[in-house]
Design a protein that fits this description.
This protein is α+β, with helices and mostly antiparallel strands. 23% of the residues lie in helices and 26% in strands. It is globular. It comes from Bacteroides gallinaceum.
């Protein structure tokens, strides 16, 4: 009888909360499943095996093959000795090291205007909802600031006012999608569930287009309250990277466009004569006394594309660089959290 009780106690404590345990979230736009880059799919598998993130929030999942991308990649990872779980997805995808209790389509794909998916699981007895988003890539007003139409990417006159920029920005479906996320995530928070969101928002941050940067990166003197990150900020959600690195000048955190030696420059940039470097891939979370933000780094090459030139960033941004083929035109964001009592 003593042995039975001891075994049950061991099982209980192994499943209960363990303060100090860390977990990682990787946001990664994989550029149509890496199919644009030779060897891209294998590179995605290789890097996940190397980094072993607890959660991966994918953007640009296209499901080109007869099986869905996340099903394929789970099978490929299993062949390499790594166990992950996933769910139905389109445009966005998600991998979890923990069994999935529930999954929901929060904002469905329609006419390629973006998606938001939700996954619920448990980490050491604590429920966590991980959301993945890939928002509307049309009406990208940050191109307009640089003299390019954000829908057709043709040359246009640069806007004369911030109101003009925001009017173009409002034509996208990004705000609609993120409002759906906020509504769903609030229910999670009310139910005591921790919340993390990873995504390619296709929109810069109001924390980056500020007075100190208004004459940099072809911002053309504009200080713009970009709406998606601002909506999240106002709803109480926290931008992990900018929290770790509040100094925008030293740590710009550019995630797009990333240089890729296997692809011609004209396929890596939409505004050939402009400096379109921006931070558009994010990990957000809801502040929770049980959850501590520990670290955030960029994942990808140090190279970027600036005015159709390949450059190496000289900022203080920290990088986890790829070991081989880089499968995308974005840089990812790898964030580390710690569970606390």
């Amino acid at each position: 009888m003593k042995n039975v009780i001891l075994s049950l106690l061991v099982l209980f404590f192994s499943l209960s909360v363990r303060a100090g345990e860390k977990f990682t979230v990787l946001q990664w736009n994989i550029w149509q499943e890496g199919t644009v880059v030779p060897g891209g799919y294998d590179a995605i598998v290789n890097e996940i095996v190397r980094l072993k993130p607890d959660f991966v929030t994918f953007s640009e999942v296209r499901n080109y093959h007869s099986t869905r991308f996340c099903d394929r990649i789970v099978a490929s990872l299993k062949e390499r000795g790594e166990t992950y779980h996933s769910f139905y997805s389109d445009d966005t995808g998600l991998l979890s090291r923990y069994p999935i209790a529930d999954s929901t389509v929060v904002y469905p794909l329609h006419d390629d205007h973006g998606t938001v998916h939700r996954m619920l699981t448990e980490i050491y007895g604590r429920k966590i909802a991980v959301y993945t988003a890939h928002l509307d890539y049309l009406s990208d007003a940050y191109y307009n600031v640089r003299g390019y139409d954000g829908s057709t990417w043709k040359k246009i006159p640069k806007p004369e006012s911030i109101a003009e920029v925001l009017a173009v920005n409002d034509a996208s479906f990004r705000d609609d999608a993120i409002k759906c996320f906020i509504k769903a995530a609030r229910k999670d928070v009310e139910n005591g569930v921790m919340v993390v969101l990873g995504g390619d928002f296709n929109e810069p941050s109001h924390l980056d287009w500020i007075r100190e940067t208004k004459d940099l990166y072809d911002h053309n003197g504009m200080i713009i309250p970009w709406t998606v990150p601002l909506l999240l900020d106002n709803a109480g959600f926290v931008d992990a990277y900018r929290t770790v690195y509040p100094d925008v000048l030293s740590y710009p955190g550019f995630t797009f466009p990333a240089d890729n030696p296997l692809i011609k420059v004209n396929r890596l940039t939409w505004a050939p004569e402009s400096d379109e470097r921006d931070r558009i891939d994010y990990v957000f979370f809801y502040p929770d006394r049980r959850l501590k933000l520990k670290d955030a780094v960029l994942f990808g090459p140090k190279g970027s594309i600036r005015k159709s030139e390949r450059i190496v960033e000289t900022s203080k941004d920290r990088f986890v660089e790829p070991l081989g083929v880089w499968p995308t035109d974005h840089k990812g964001v790898l964030v580390t959290f710690e569970l606390v009592e």
